[in-house]
Amino acid sequence: MRAVRYSEYGGPDVLRHEEAERPQPGPGQVLVRVAGTSFNGVDALVRAGVLQEVFPVRLPHIPGVDVAGTVEETGDGVTGFRPGDAVIGFLPIVDGGAAAEYVLAPAEVLAAAPESVPLADAAALPVVGLTAWQGLFELGQVRPGQRVLVHGAGGAVGGYAVQLAAQAGATVIATARDEHADRLRSYGAAQVVGREAFGEVREPVDVVLNLAPETPPELTALVRAGGIVVTSATPPEPDVARGVRAERVFVRSDAGQLRHLAEEVDAGRLRIHVADRRPLAELPAVHEAAGAGKLAGKTVLVP
Questions:
Q1: Does pTM top 0.90 for this prediction?
Q2: Between helices 41-48 and 283-291, what is the axis angle to 10°?
Q3: Torsions phi, psi of 180, nearest 5?
Q4: Are 119 and 68 in contact (CB under 8 A)?
């Protein structure tokens, strides 16, 4: 099979589109014929070697933790999936990824793919959709009637976060660049302000979900007493006097939550936004664009 992989840590130039051995499923594993994968920031960090202690991958390594595809074969003990089933999943980071024609997946990380979108586009859902869900509802405990601020809402996680919070009955304020404003309003954002226009947020919020590379200190002051700042970056200091907490979201694979998100897509309540679609051979260019800060939204790659 053809795959993009690297045999040493380094920059995007270590990625090679080459022949690789097609894997065979063992007990509890599913062989998936890949329809699409997508780029996530963790792919670049692992490739650069800065996460070796946390995610010690075996070289050569195939990146790509998001997968959408069809079941090709199942290993011993696998129930619930059969050849031809359309599936999505968030793959273990240390195992071989989906930047290939085929990938092995533990059966427990897979969920049925949404049927209302092209299968390759469904690869834009797992990691970022789960990040938004876990940040809002596991850590933020968002409830109907609350006010939620999504900072950095124009990116891949932010689009899902705005939709999910609005669907949960929250009033959503989003910070984003002007080119994302109309899309975010269509997702249910009640107010869209500039990335640094915190002064335009006139009333306190119950939950902040920060998706920017850093957590601006101004965010804590926007949270009402007893609220929380959830961030994908380094958390700010909590405001103990007002009971404002701060938590960092570390996304994990969860097939049950992913199944729910796919059902929301098919019900028309959650929209998948794909900023770009490219052939898998262009993955090195995608990594390079991401490193230069020129990758906006979710990029899907198709073998």
A1: yes
A2: 90
A3: -100, -5
A4: yes
Contact 274, 286 (CB under 8 A): no
DSSP, res 245: E
pLDDT of residue 195: 82
Q: Which two tokens stand for residue 17?
A: 């589109």
CB 81 within 8 A of CB 112: no
Q: Which helix (H) or strand (E) holds 103?
A: strand 102-106
Half-sphere exposure of 179 (CA within 13 A, CB side): 4
- Each as own residue / partner, the long-range contacts of residues 51-56 (CB below 8 Å, 24 or more positions apart, any chain) are 52/9, 55/93, 55/94, 56/94
Token pair, residue 29, equals 């594993």
Which whole-number Å values give the CA distances from 98 to 67, 120, 166, 167, in the listed order? Answer: 6, 12, 32, 31
Q: How confident is the model at residue 197 (pLDDT cuts 50, 70, 90)?
A: confident
Give the tokens for residue 290: 């991401």
- Tens-digit pLDDT profile for residues 88-132: 999 999 999 999 999 999 999 999 999 999 999 999 999 999 999
From residue 155, how far is each of 90, 158, 160, 205, 290 by CA, in Å?
A: 19, 5, 9, 21, 12
